Amino acid sequence: MNTEKRSREFYVLAIFFTLFVLFLYGPLSAIVILSFQGPNGGLTFPLNGVSLRWFANLFEQQAVGDFGGSFRRSFVLGVMVMVVTVVVSLLAGLAFRRKFRGATALFYLSVASLVVPSIIISLGIGVLFSQLGFQPAWYTSGFGAHLTWTLPFGVLIMFAIFNRFSPAYEEAARDLGATSWQTFRHVVLPMIAPPLIGVGLFGFTLSYDEFARTLMTSGTYNTLPLEIYGMTTNVTTPVLYALGTVTTLFSFLVIAGTLGLIMAMNRRRGRA
To answer: What does the record list as coiled-coil region(s) (predicted)?
Structure first.
């Protein structure tokens, strides 16, 4: 009886997971397929031939849209946010290992932006910059808006990491004569490096595809999500699908590269 019940539960979960995967990747697969439309193809099925015409069109002069510029801005902004998120989250994780006055209030203050609607934060930052006489731009106000989204996640992840980190390793290093900096560099940092890379990847991806918090803070020049959204109202060729395919492939390459780096570090640590 128990075997039959477990088998039934397995099939229910398998069906649910299959439906979830189809719901998640079904629309994406449609975009990928339509990006290979023939030269005379449109924005809907059926395909009118197969070609790479629209991928080549991405590198040509466009009447509407700035693919290259928006991608570069999103990439640079993502890297900036990633670096700051990793550094600040790491420092916050180290600081909160010791109890200090006001730690609870500071914690809730740091994660409060997660419960505030993103568009409200974007609007508030944009209005604040305008009132102070500064021109909103993706590398100033947009950068700050993205940090209100990525830093709380980074801090929460580092808290979870250090809650499971045993101080016995640091005590052993200090007993052997290591200084505080040597203990951090040679003991703590190598052990938390894989999850720290994960925090960096999380910060980059959250910034790279953020729309709501960029809407009122990007200034004159669009980031890639804003550019794609703007193109949906005036682009009538599958070049938009080709752009979606290329950016999706780039995202998967970033994730695969990060996972490969983490696996390499784990193997190296295992050999050591």
So the answer is: none
> What CATH number does the domain containing 142 carry?
1.10.3720.10
d(CA 242, CA 41): 13
* Residue 56 covered by a domain: no
Q: What's the mean pLDDT in 198-208?
A: 92
Q: What is the DSSP string of 165-227?
A: --THHHHHHHHTT--HHHHIIIIIHHHHHHHHHHHHHHHHHHHHT--HHHHTTSTTS--HHHH
Averaged pLDDT, 239-251? 88
The answer to whether residue 16 is domain-embedded is: no
Residue 17 lies in a domain: no
Average pLDDT over residues 98-111: 83
Instruction: Return all residues near 217 (Cβ < 8 A) that are at least 6 apart.
Output: 122, 125, 126, 129, 136, 138, 141, 142, 144, 145
Residue 2's pLDDT band (boundaries 50, 70, 90)? low
Compute the distance between CA of residue 142 and CA of residue 129 in angstroms, rounded to an integer.
Answer: 11
Q: Which range marks the domain in which residue 125 is found?
A: 66-271
DSSP label at residue 228: H
Query: How much is the average pLDDT of 220-239?
Result: 84
- Examine residue 119 and state whether it is found in any structural domain, yes or no: yes
What tokens were used for 103? 């730690």
Q: What is the DSSP string of 113-157?
A: GGTS-HHHHHHHHHHHHHHTTPPP-TTTHHHHHHHHHHHHHHHHH
Q: How many domains does the chain have?
A: 1
Closest CA to 153 of 208, 95, 201, 224: 201
**pTM reported for the whole predicted model:** 0.85
Write down the pLDDT at residue 207: 94
DSSP 8-state class, residue 58: T
What's the pLDDT at 243? Answer: 86
